[in-house]
Every structure is written in structure tokens, then in C-alpha cells.
Amino acid sequence: MKKVFVVEKSDNVGTAVGEPIGAGETVGTEGRVTDRTVVARADIPYGHKIALADIPKGAQVTKYGLSIGSALADIKAGDHVHIHNVESNRGRGDKAAQAR
Description:
Layout: E1 2-6, E2 13-15, E3 26-31, E4 37-39, E5 49-51, E6 60-63, E7 66-71, E8 80-81, E9 86-88, H1 93-99
Parallel strand pairs: 1-3
Antiparallel strand pairs: 2-5, 3-4, 5-8, 6-7, 7-9
């Protein structure tokens, strides 16, 4: 089973750090969180994120226990999470202050 890296229980995404993930593959978690599995609904390139749970439009996307942005659309567990469906709050003083 392929693995994604997850640090905190509150994270709703994991990062493909070992190798790319193909659509339909079952994915487990490694890091400090090792008890989650999800089926990839799309190809996930190396270094990109996969949703570990459903993330509603407007909800915070959480990685390393911190908000990294908000969902631009409903994101289903197993979806590829990247700039096409997340508005980043990193490097934006106006958004970063809201996420704290």
C-alpha cells in the first residue's frame, strides 16, 4: 500500500512523499498519524496532497496542524488537493490572520 505523510490528527490532507499515487490505489498514512486509509480518486503527483476526509467548500485545509488555505469547492476524501481547489493563506497577511 502506498503511503502519505501526516503529522497531526487534525490534518485533513496527507502528502505523497515516497512516490506518486495512482487513481484507485488504496493509500495509508505514515508519520505521527498511521491509522488512516483512503482510496485515491485521482492521480496524486509526488509532493502533492490527498484529502483524507471530505472538506466542504470554504472549510480550512489543514496540514502539519495548521491551516494552509480554504477549499474553493467541495473536496471529497481521496481527491487531489492543490491550487485548483484550495486558496492558499500562506504569504497573505490578510488570510493568514483569519486562519489563526
